[in-house]
Amino acid sequence: GKKADVYSFKYILPEGGKKKDKGGKDKDKKKEDGAAYEEAIRDCKIGWLAKLGYMTKEGQDLYTELCAAGGNLTSVQSARLNNIMTVPEVERDWAAVLEQADRVILSVDQAQLLAWLGMKSDARENAVEVKKEMDKAKLQLVEALTAKGEAMLEKGEQDKEKLLGLYTDIVKYTDQTDVKVFGFMWKLFRQQGLPAKALKLSVKQLEDKQTKDNEKVVLESLQALGWDHIVRFIELGKPARYPGEYQPF
After folding, report:
1. What mean pLDDT do residues 101-113 have?
2. Distance CA 84, CA 61 (A)
3. How far is the C-alpha of 196 from the C-alpha of 214, rounded, in Å?
4. pTM for the whole thing?
5. The predicted structure's pLDDT at residue 20
6. In angstroms, what CA-CA distances link 100 with 69, 77, 208?
7. Are 85 and 55 spatial neighbours (Cβ–Cβ below 8 Å)?
8. Is 157 exposed, middle or buried (0-12, 13-18, 19+ CB in 10 A)?
9. Average pLDDT along the chain
């Protein structure tokens, strides 16, 4: 009969997989957990710093403690500034606002922030984390620049070059119609003898958020323009807009 064909096979077996050492990973995870815990504690303290009265012993002690701990102090300085700004405007210590705003501004690396804002795309592995940090720094810087501008105007600053320099710094990071910078912008335009620009901003602000404070700014701008007939019309319409504050009889 016919003979069967015979073929030779050569088997190459791969090396057996090595068991991964979980000990190293466990150590790294413990380090990461420890760092996350410390960061959470710090964030909690910063959150309380924005709530405690800045003149209270507790507030001052917590601020001193966070500054002494080192690290990125922008969030600490910003929380302190927000705390000072929560005081009603008529009672606000504008000298303290100016001093604290300067601390926030100095703590932000503006060259690094502008370089990041100028990037078309960020292909780095930690791009998401970087974006989160940069957006946060931008917000804190804009708030500090605005607070500084308001403080300068409230303290009677007349140097046009300084004020317009601050205006230029702000519009590098946001538009002049941004609600966060409204407090400085309308006061600047009023101080510079531009009531129409102040009115334009204040009307937009009032359209976005109708409050008595925003309406008051509109009225001040109208009075500066001499448009008393519109002022009278708005004043007479208050009972219809805020009926809860008026007794019918």
Report:
1. 96
2. 15
3. 16
4. 0.84
5. 63
6. 18, 7, 29
7. no
8. middle
9. 90
DSSP state letters, 28-72: HHHHHHHHHHHHHHHHHHHHHHTTS-TTSHHHHHHHHHHHHT-S-
152 in Cβ contact with 166 (< 8 Å): yes
Quote the tokens at residue 113: 């922030």
Cα 42 from Cα 79, distance rounded (Å) = 12
Average pLDDT over residues 184-200: 96
- Which own/partner pairs from 53-56 qualify as long-range (CB within 8 Å, at least 24 positions apart)? 53/83, 54/80, 54/83, 54/84, 54/96
9, with CB counted inside 10 A (0-12, 13-18, 19+), is: exposed
Q: Write down the residue that tokens 């009531």 correspond to.
A: 195
Q: Quick check: 100 and 84 in contact, CB under 8 A?
A: yes
Query: d(Cα 190, Cα 217) in Å, to the nearest integer?
Result: 10
- Residue 76 pLDDT > 70: yes
> What is the pLDDT averaged over residues 20-35?
68
Which of these, 87, 65, 86, 85, lies nearest to 76 by C-alpha position?
65
Report pLDDT digits (tens) over 111-162: 999 999 999 888 888 999 999 999 999 999 999 999 999 999 999 999 999 9
